[in-house]
Amino acid sequence: MKRTVFSSRTTVGVVLVASAVICLTGCRIPQPPPVSGYTPTPVTGSTNVLSPSRLRVGELLTVTFTDVPNPIPPFEGRIREDGKITLTMNQEFEAAGKTIAELEREIRERYVPKYFQNLTVTVRAPERFFYVDGQVRMPSRQPYYGEITVLGAIAAAGGFTDFAQPKKVRILRADGKVELVDCKRAQRDARYDVPIYPGDRIIVPRRFW
Q: CATH number of 129-204: 3.40.1380.20, 3.40.109.10, 3.40.50.620, 3.10.560.10?
């Protein structure tokens, strides 16, 4: 009888020890599966998100050169698909991903003192606007002052009309790409509230029912 009791206690002890070991080596709480067909936009500050202060493919630039003996024609054109612009003397510069100040400095350092003793370079991006069109209360061109999301941009245009279809909002990017945004989902989960950049056009479609 004593032998049976001892055996039972031993068995119970082994089970308890084994359970403890399993928990200590990594109990895992099951995670819900990811949302099908969508990758949430990285949060602000992620290296995957280009800062709004940096130039992007498709943006219009004007570059002027002053303080030189002979006038140099200004450049006016869009940043090409390869992210570059070509300036006087057939000099090519990587513009996309840089701030205006960084690009001005790089251009000047390329020309001075190799080509000119002195040179002042001024870069402007005259189209720092975004556009909101369709079923919003005030379709308009809005000045781009800094970071803003699609919900903020629509709010700046007065919000949705009663006939809007907020689940199928289109964003036409300055580089020609098109994104479809479910603004109802974005209102529930900020990860889906995508950023808006200069030159973007937001189109809110009409709802048919």
A: 3.10.560.10
The phi and psi torsions of 60 (rounded to 5 degrees) equal -80, 135
Task: Give CATH for domain 60-124.
Answer: 3.30.1950
Q: Which residues of the chain have pLDDT under 70?
A: 1-52
pLDDT at 174: 77
CB atoms within 10 A of CB 141: 13
**How many CA within 13 A on the CB side of residue 102?**
10
C-alpha distances in Å from residue 144, one per residue of 61, 131, 147, 149, 190: 15, 10, 8, 11, 21
pTM above 0.85, yes or no: no
CATH 3.30.1950 domain locations along the chain: 60-124
| Structure confidence at residue 50 (pLDDT) | 53
pLDDT of residue 52: 64
Task: State the pLDDT at residue 127.
Answer: 76
Within a 13 Å sphere around the CA of 157, how many CA atoms are in the beta-carbon half?
28
Residue 121: phi and psi, rounded to 5, are: -110, 130
Distances 179 to 58, 125, 150, 201 between C-alpha atoms, Å: 16, 23, 11, 10
Q: What was the pLDDT predicted at 97?
A: 92
